[in-house]
Design a protein that fits this description.
With 200 residues, the protein is mainly alpha-helical. The protein has one domain. It contains nine helices and two strands; from the N terminus they run H-H-H-H-H-E-E-H-H-H-H. A hairpin with a 5-residue loop joins strand 1 and strand 2. The longest helix has 22 residues. The protein is globular. The termini are far apart.
């Protein structure tokens, strides 16, 4: 976050917002459309191999939607700026794992959709700044899009979305490469085994 998020917004990134975003992601898996409204059966059956990544995207964006709604109702503590900025930093962290997995594709779809809708601005130095008003609007639009795709069970439309949106751009890859060059690890690696413990 210190390398890619605007310094004026770093104050909004915190553990509680990260935890809530992850928790509501999991809650969101249980919500939404399970059966298509077009007579194609269950969403999972209709979308086949395209189901998993779109479902992860749904959980991300609907989780954030729930956080937003609960904050507005006073049922959750915090500032929406914390949740949105932490979410943005979380995407930049997660995409370092790559875009091949279901989670990776979902992250890239969200990143690219939010970018196209002005939810954040990237300056010439590769620093990202969240536009909180546009972020909420983009979140609402993406929620609607994903639920519509699931409800219609339109596998061809989901495949098209994946090919167009679930990709890492050259620009983003350059920003991620900066982190690698600075020696910032992608993940925590625990050295284990008898040699590490000094056990013979």
């Amino acid at each position: 976050a210190n390398e890619l998020i605007d310094k004026d917004q770093l104050q909004y990134i915190n553990f509680d917002a990260f935890f809530a975003n992850v928790m509501f992601h999991e809650v969101a898996h249980g919500l939404g459309i399970k059966k298509t409204i077009t007579g194609k059966g269950f969403v999972k059956e209709a979308l086949q191999e395209q189901y998993s990544w779109l479902e992860e995207g749904k959980a991300d964006v609907l989780g954030l939607y729930m956080v937003t709604g609960l904050l507005k109702k006073g049922e959750l503590d915090g500032d929406i700026k914390q949740f949105y900025t932490t979410y943005m930093a979380g995407i930049l962290r997660s995409v370092r794992f790559g875009a091949a997995s279901a989670h990776g594709k979902a992250n890239m779809q969200c990143f690219n959709f939010f970018k196209e809708n002005g939810a954040f601005i990237r300056n010439e130095n590769g620093i990202y700044k969240v536009d909180f008003t546009k972020f909420e609007m983009a979140m609402n639009k993406l929620s609607s899009l994903i639920i519509t795709l699931q409800g219609n069970g339109d596998k061809a439309a989901v495949e098209k979305t994946q090919k167009e949106k679930a990709v890492i751009s050259t620009e983003l890859q350059q920003d991620l490469d900066k982190l690698t060059k600075k020696g910032i690890p992608v993940d925590i690696f625990f050295e284990q085994g008898a040699d590490v413990l000094g056990v013979k």
